[in-house]
Amino acid sequence: MGVFADVRPSDTAASELRFRRGVIISGGPGSVYEPGDPQVDPALFHVQVPVLGICYGHQLLAHHLGGQVHKGERGEYGIAHLSVTVPDPLWNGISGTQIWMSHRDSVEVMPPGFRIIACTENASVAAMSDPERRLFGLQFHPEVAHTHAGTRILENFLFDICGAVRDWDVSGRVPYLEDQIRAVAQDRNVFFFVSGGVDSTVAYTLCLRALGPERVYAIYVDTGLMRQGETQFVRDIFSELGATHFLVDHAEQQFLKALDRVYDPEAKRCVIGEEFVRVQERILATEHFLDGHWILGQGTIYPDTIESGGSAKADLIKTHHNRVAGIQALIDSGRIIEPLSSFYKDEVREIGRSIGIPSRFLSRHPFPGPGLAIRCLCSATEDGATKSPDGTLLPVRSVGVQGDSRSYRQVLAVEQKPSLDLIVNVAPELTNRRADINRVVAVCGSKAQLDDMSVFCACVTKTRLDLLREADGIVRELCRETGFEDRVWQFPVVLLPLGIDGARESVVLRPINSVDGMTADVVLMPPDMLDRLTSELLALRGVAAVFYDVTHKPPGTIEWE
Ligand code: XMP
What is the pLDDT of residues 229-244, one digit of tens each? Predict the structure, then answer.
C-alpha cells in the first residue's frame, strides 16, 4: 500500500515500538494458553500507538487486556459473512463483507473498555475495538484475498487511524540500487546461482546494468527435476538480457542418485537441499569464486529474510534453505550483494518491468525450488484403495493446512466430473466431516475401477520424471493454446504411483487461483478442454487415471507434498 513497514519478532519490547505510527500483530497457529507460544510485550497496549491484532493477535489483545479467550477444539475455517454492527473508524466505507475465518480459539469475554463492532453467524467476537485507546482486534484475516473488503480495512487502519502516508515507492529506486551495487562490489566481480525464477533474475539484471556483462556471472544448475524445455528457456532469457557469462551445470545424475529410495516428502526436500550444497561447493572450487576477486549475488527478497531468522517463530514453510560452508564464509566476510532484500515480490516484478525484463518471463507461474521432485509422489509400501459410502479412499496422503499448521492425510476420490457443486458444497462438507482426509479429487477418467487400484512402491526416477514432464508438457501446451494459463495463478500437475499392473501411475490436475499462495481457489476448466486433456493423458503409456483436485487451500495445500 506504499507504506514503509518492517516485520519484527512478536516479543519486541514496547519501548522499541513506541515511536512507530502503528503496530499490527499477525495471526499464527499458537494459543494464548500454550507456554512457549508467541507473546507480545503487554506494555505495547499502553504506549499510545494504534494496534491492530489479527486472529491470534486479536486473541493476545483480549488476553492481555483482561478479556477471556476460549480454547476451541474444532475451530472455524472458511468463508463467512461479516455484519458491521457498530460504526467504527475501521469500517469507513464498509457495511458488511465476505471474510475468511481460520481459527481454533476465540475471544469469549471482551476486555474492559472494548466493544463488539461486527459479528458473523458463528463468531461471538468477530471484531472488537476501543477507539479511545486506538486498539482494534479482528478474528478474521483481512490480509487474504477471500476477505473482500480486507484491503479497505487495512487502509482505514493505516491512513485514518495511524495517519500513515504513502512514502514507499519502488519505481525510481533503480539508479540508487545500481549505485549501491557499485559501492559494494568495488573492483570485484559478482557471481550468481540463478534458478530461472523472478527474484534471482531481477537481482542478476540489476548487477548486469550496474557493472556490465564482463563482470557478472550466472550459473544455472540443471537438477534434472525441471519441466520440459526449462534449461533452454532460461538460457534464452539470459541471452536476451545480455548475459555473456552464463554457465549451465549438468547435475541430473547426481540428484537422481541422491533421491534413490527416498520416500518421505520432507526428506526429499532435504536431500535436494544437501545436493545443491554439494554442487555449489564443487562450482565454487572449480571456478575459483572464493579467491577474493568475487562476491556472491543473491536474489533474497524481504520475505526470505523473515523466513530465515527475522522471525524465530515463523512456522516451517520451506525446508530447503541449506547453507554452503563456502557461501557462509562469503556472507560472514561481507562479500555478498542482495539488491532486493528490502522488497516484496510484487515490488520485485515492478523493478523487473522497469529494467526491461520481458513480461513473458515476469508473468510466469511460480514453480517450487525442488522442482518436479515434490510433484512426483513416492511410496515405500504397497496398499489398495478402499471403497467408502462417500467415495474411494486412495491410499495416498497429501499435505494440507488447518489454521496455520499442517496436516498430512488421505485423499478421497469421488466418481463425478469436476463441477462447481463439487468444489463449493461437496468437497468442503467432506473435508469438514471426515477427520481422515484433507483433500477431495474428482475422477476425470480411468482405465480401471478405482477400488481395484493400488499404490505401488515408487521413488523419484528418471522414467517417472520423464512421464511427469510429458504429462505436464501436454497440460501446459493446451493451457497456452486455449488461453487457460491466464486464468490460473499456478497449475501443478502431480504424479501418483497409483494404478493397476501395466499402468501404475495416475495424474492429478491442480489448477488454482491465488493472490499470494497463502490461500487458493480451485479453478474449473471448460469441459471440452478437460475431455481433450483427459484423453491425451490417458493415452500416455503407464497412466491409469486422471484426477482433478477440487479442494481449496485450506484445507489442501497447493502442492501435494
Ligand atoms: P503450498 O503447497 O504450501 O504452496 O500451498 C504455496 C506456494 O509455495 C510453493 N512451494 C514451494 N516453493 N520450495 C519452493 O521454492 C518448496 O519446497 C515449496 N513448496 C511449495 C508452491 O508451489 C506454491 O506456489
Answer: 999 999 999 999 999 9
pLDDT at 449 over 70: yes
Give nearest CA residue, ligand 1 atom 17: 318
CA of 118 to the centre of ligand 1 (A): 34
d(CA 89, CA 93): 9
Q: Which residue has its alpha carbon closest to ligand 1 atom 6?
A: 517
Whether 558 is in the pocket of ligand 1, judged by its Cβ within 6 Å, is yes
Instruction: State which H helix or E strand residue 274 sits in.
Output: helix 265-286
Domain 14-161 has CATH 3.40.50.880: yes
How many CA atoms does the CB half-sphere of 28 hold within 13 Å? 23
> Is residue 118 a contact partner of residue 103, using CB atoms and an 8 Å limit?
no
Q: Whose CA is nearest to atom 4 of ligand 1?
A: 558
Tell which CATH classification among 3.30.300.10, 1.10.3080.10, 3.90.1030.10, 3.40.50.300 matches the domain 376-549.
Answer: 3.30.300.10
Distance between CA atoms of 312 and 156, rounded to whole angstroms? 30
- Please tell me the pTM assigned to this model: 0.81
Residues with active-site annotation: 55, 141, 143
Report DSSP letters for 95-150, one per residue.
SEEEEEEEESSEEEEPPTT-EEEEE-SS-TTSEEEETTTTEEEESS-TTSTTSTTH
CB 365 near ligand 1, within 6 Å: no
Q: What are the beta bridge partners of residue 135?
A: 51, 130
Cα 368 to averaged position of ligand 1 atoms, centre (Å): 5
- Find out whether the beta carbon of 370 lies less than 6 Å from any atom of ligand 1: yes
CA–CA distances in Å: residue 88 to residues 50, 52, 126, 134, 303: 14, 13, 14, 11, 32
Q: Using CA atoms, how far apart are residues 239 and 234, in angstroms rounded to an integer?
A: 9
* Calpha distance 456→458 (Å, rounded): 6
For the structural domain made of 171-368, what CATH number should be given? 3.40.50.620
Q: Ligand 1 centroid to 558 CA: how many Å?
A: 7
Instruction: Judge whether 161 and 136 are in contact, CB under 8 Å.
Output: yes
The atom number, within ligand 1, closest to the CA of 514 reads 24
Count CA within 13 A, CB hemisphere, residue 482.
18
Mean pLDDT of 437-462: 97
Window from 111-115, 289-293, 446-450 with minimum mean pLDDT: 289-293
Cα separation of 219 and 324, whole Å? 15
Q: What is the pLDDT of residues 66-104, one digit of tens each?
A: 999 998 766 777 788 999 999 999 999 999 899 988 888
Residue-level length of the chain: 561
CA of 16 to the centre of ligand 1 (A): 34
Closest Cα to atom 18 of ligand 1: 368
In short, whether 469's Cβ falls inside 6 Å of ligand 1 is: no
Q: What are the residue ranges spanned by the domains of the chain?
A: 14-161, 171-368, 376-549
Q: Look up residue 89 and give its amino acid.
A: P
